[in-house]
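[stage:ingest] chain + small molecule (uridine-5'-diphosphate)
[stage:ingest] validated
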Amino acid sequence: MLISIVVPCFNEEEIIGRFHAHVTAELSRSGTEFELVYVDDGSHDRTLPLLEEMAAADSRTRYVSFSRNFGKEAAMLAGLQHADGDAVVIMDADLQHPPELVHRMIQLYGEGYDQVIARRTRKGDRVTRTLTARAYYRLINRLVDVELVDGVGDFRLLSRRTVDAVLELTEYNRFSKGLFAWVGFRTTTFAYENAAREQGRSKWTFGKLLNYGLDGLLSFNDKPLRAALYVGLLLVCVAGAYAAWIVGVALVHGVDTPGYVTLLVTVTALAGVQMVMLGLIGEYVGRIYYEVKRRPHFLVKATNTTSTSVPHAKPRGELVRR
Ligand code: UDP
Ligand code: MG
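[stage:predict] done
[stage:export] tokens:
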């Protein structure tokens, strides 16, 4: 049984060496047969040379390096495409995903689970972040078909058939959390306490998080459009009732000419609602725009492994090294 560890790395020069040592030691300890697939997501520090060194020193290490930063989603996709294992574990390079937990995952995989998910507790997080996350998941689960769970991220083990299923989903706008949930199969979850990032900085800024959250909401299904429709209908009903009331008042008390404020508020509010809904439709159109281009998810600059950006085109079996 071969376990592939897929590791997206973006500017991780400070920690990648330690990560490698830690994971290798951990997996060797239990005698697991494994390979490491590093994906350098266009780092502009010394991540790539370090990966090359690591690969030269250890035949179980492979790397794929992107021509520029394509984002973690693309990096994970590349890693999954290049992983040959019977099961694949996706891990961050910053040691926030404790390598010890891989044993637990492999054990549960042995018990027949296709997806073994490590769910981080929010212990140690800032209160604001915890609360935002909670509110976000409550909202998103209303609007998305698949169940998304707070604290569940990309740290998980996927069986071969799950990986193949994920690779079938070739969409350009990738929201892995949703994709993994969409795929399904036998899934189990266990909790772990998140370690603080030891070196370097998190690449998540508030703006990026906001966009990611929006992506999750929109790139998955069209329920927000449905919601917009309902809001529109609701507004029409409210307007109708208000109109009836105005007419009623005019019939009983006669006509005067009030309502400057009412008029202004109504017009601006409705304009706002319309802009939001247009924006919503625009988001979907934008996504269609990117999907129909059918551009590759990433471009490879350097690798020590057989490379293709087309899922399933990869030759199975014998691994050819350059
Ligand atoms: N990462 C990546 N491309 C990016 C941003 C991040 O491959 O554009 C990698 C990064 O190297 C790390 C993982 O994704 O291994 C998670 O990134 P980070 O630690 O910054 O995110 P956080 O843990 O704060 O969610
Ligand atoms: Mg991190």
